[in-house]
Amino acid sequence: MSASEQDRVQAIYDEFAKSYDDHYASAEFQEEDLALFKIVSPWIRGKVLDLGCGTGLTLTYNDISKDDYLGVDPSAGMLEKLQAKFPGFATVNSTFEQWNETDKESKFETILGLFGAPAYFAKESYSQVLERLAPKGHYFLMFYKPGYFPAHIYTEEDKAAAKARIDYDLINSTFETTFIFTNYLVATNIPAEFLPAR
Q1: CA torsion angle for 141, 144, 145, 146 (degrees, to 10)?
Q2: pLDDT at residue number 191
Q3: Distance (Å, rounded) from C-alpha 98 to C-alpha 192?
Q4: DSSP character for 41?
Q5: CB atoms within 10 A of CB 99
Q6: pLDDT at 115
Q7: What secondary structure does DSSP assign to 87-153, as a single string?
């Protein structure tokens, strides 16, 4: 992501943080959350790296200890909301790539990137996510599916840059399994028999 796009997206999310939880409180979004965590919650264990953690959706639906959680998000506004709801949980105000440069050693049994968060990663860093995974750990990364970008983030002009950044062929070759969940292409190593029928 270019620096100008990064700044613009961060500013949008900082502003959106003020109403984010209210926006996603409708029955439609609640049903989507419940369907998602029905799939992923049984695999959330050990140390958890929550990339693009936002206002703390993962913590809302899962019982994770403070010692086992790290949330990373480039939006300070989103992290303020998370800390207000879940005081004392560790967070880092950073992109994945920036954080990855500062902490080269940590490994996690669970790595999450929910509801489009990995779509903002540089494609060169896809494989770096796997380098953070502990042996026998699981990852669940939700990229925007081809052709979909949330209207509240992208203008028509921005979509071309975003489409060029997301490398679907590389996603499919880097990660074990991919499947469509609503508007997202999920990359995961959760065993296929525990995933929705494709």
Answers
A1: -130
A2: 95
A3: 32
A4: G
A5: 19
A6: 93
A7: TT-EEEES-HHHHHHH--S--EEEEEE-TTGGGGS-GGGHHHHHHTEEEEEEEEEEEEPTT---TTT
Gap between the Cα atoms of 175 and 170, Å rounded: 8
How far apart, in whole angstroms, are the C-alpha atoms of residue 69 and residue 52? 13
Q: Looking at this protein, which amino acid is placed at residue 124?
A: E
- Structure tokens that stand for 143 in this block: 């990229």
Pair 11, 132: CB distance under 8 Å: no
Token pair 């936002």 in the structure block, residue: 54
Q: Is the dihedral of CA 53, 89, 132, 37 positive or negative?
A: negative
Q: Which domains does the chain have, with CATH numbers?
A: 3-194 (3.40.50.150)
How far, CA to CA in Å, does 181 sit from each of 86, 143, 164, 178? 27, 10, 22, 10
Phi, psi values for residue 140, rounded to 5°: -150, 105
CA-CA-CA-CA dihedral for 125, 128, 130, 134, to nearest 10: -150
Where is pLDDT greater, at 198 or 162?
A: 162
Dist. CA 67–CA 186, nearest whole Å: 27
Q: Which amino acid is at 58?
A: T
- State if pTM tops 0.85: yes
